[in-house]
């Protein structure tokens, strides 16, 4: 393909998405606000959201970590449903991505620009719409917004990041309650308690939000020996010279394994677990930092996976597996040593792309895969579509239901929009199936991949 023509195509996509930016048009996707009627009844909805879970750390995604990660529950869920490979967030940081998921809007529309943001009072919400349509709605776990959950029958959420051990719930009745134990076990106990006590004559939407595997990737004692002394394979780009390959984007980010007082310096004095053995060279210290990080991360993910297994077992025991739409995703991706980085925030593939696994036996073919370009602004309309509720017209995404049924609409998007607003390295970008164009506001500088 002619490189100049390719660049022109990307610039054209940029101009189209700038039109969305100013709000003069809505996406014209045919499925954006439909309410399909294929299913004879409305499903229950179980929406499971983790924090910073890279898709590479799920066995079903078949990355270099597939021999090391312990995700039998998520692997089974993928085998029984559909796995998405091109779901992208529009702002790779916790609160703004959660805002996009809830509202179906980009950050500049919802008001969710940065950490601990507050959504606009009248912002759209799939939870509020489900509640108004008669669903029982609940959110349990990490919330990470300044305001309390809206449009919920019940909530038990932590403030800010929450704690890995002995978390405190802020409850919908105005009270607070501290729970001893590891957070994932506590969150899941609360979710199971709610499921058992709910009104079983009504459909439900349960949002279960895990804190992990967000840094510092703390794990329960029962996983202390998982992969102990096992040398985990490194990503090919661990020792990349990002100051050369991407001076404006990767090179200026703080989340390096070693450079710029990175992960190694932050954790070199850790006692549990101790830093991996190293020699006095940058490459050795990068490798040691990677081993320290990835062991903790995999152990943290294992605790999430086993707790999801507890919830799915409850659906089986209650006999509602086939009547429940199960969605598993993360608020964004995460660097697991690629490019010598950890953390997220940038419009790089590893931090941009979110895992997504969806199971609904009545409509979704087991073991299927979708490679279409999708966005986190699509979640709200997808959930409302399955619930047969007309989506708020201000939502900017599109229902994924046709894709989940095995059909890609002819007018499906050809590019996704990205805008990171936080201090330090704000940037905007467009990603097509092949290319990525990144602009740095306040400058005339670009990076093109």
Domain count:
1
CATH superfamily: Alkaline Phosphatase, subunit A
Helix proportion = 25-40%
Name the shape in a single word. Answer: globular
- What fraction of residues sit in β-strands? 15-25%
Explained architecture:
This protein is an alpha/beta fold and 449 residues long. The chain has a single domain, classed as 3-Layer(aba) Sandwich (Alkaline Phosphatase, subunit A). Helix content is 28%, strand content 18%. Strands 1, 2, 3, 4, 5, 6, 7, 8, 11, 12 and 13 form an eleven-stranded mixed β-sheet that branches. Strand 9 (335-336) and strand 10 (342-343) form a beta hairpin. The model is unreliable at 22-39 (pLDDT under 50).
Which key phrases capture this entry?
about 450 residues; globular; Alkaline Phosphatase, subunit A; eleven-stranded mixed beta sheet; about 30% helix; about 20% strand
Topology record:
Blueprint: H1 3-21, E1 44-50, H2 72-80, E2 82-88, H3 94-103, H4 107-110, H5 126-132, E3 136-142, E4 154-158, E5 168-171, E6 176-178, H6 183-197, E7 204-209, H7 242-245, H8 263-267, H9 282-318, E8 324-330, E9 335-336, E10 342-343, H10 349-352, E11 353-359, E12 368-370, E13 374-375, H11 379-386, H12 401-404, E14 415-420, E15 427-432, E16 436-439, E17 446-448
Parallel strand pairs: 1-7, 1-8, 2-12, 2-13, 3-4, 3-7
Antiparallel strand pairs: 2-11, 4-5, 5-6, 8-11, 9-10, 14-15, 15-16, 16-17
Helix pairs in contact: 6-9
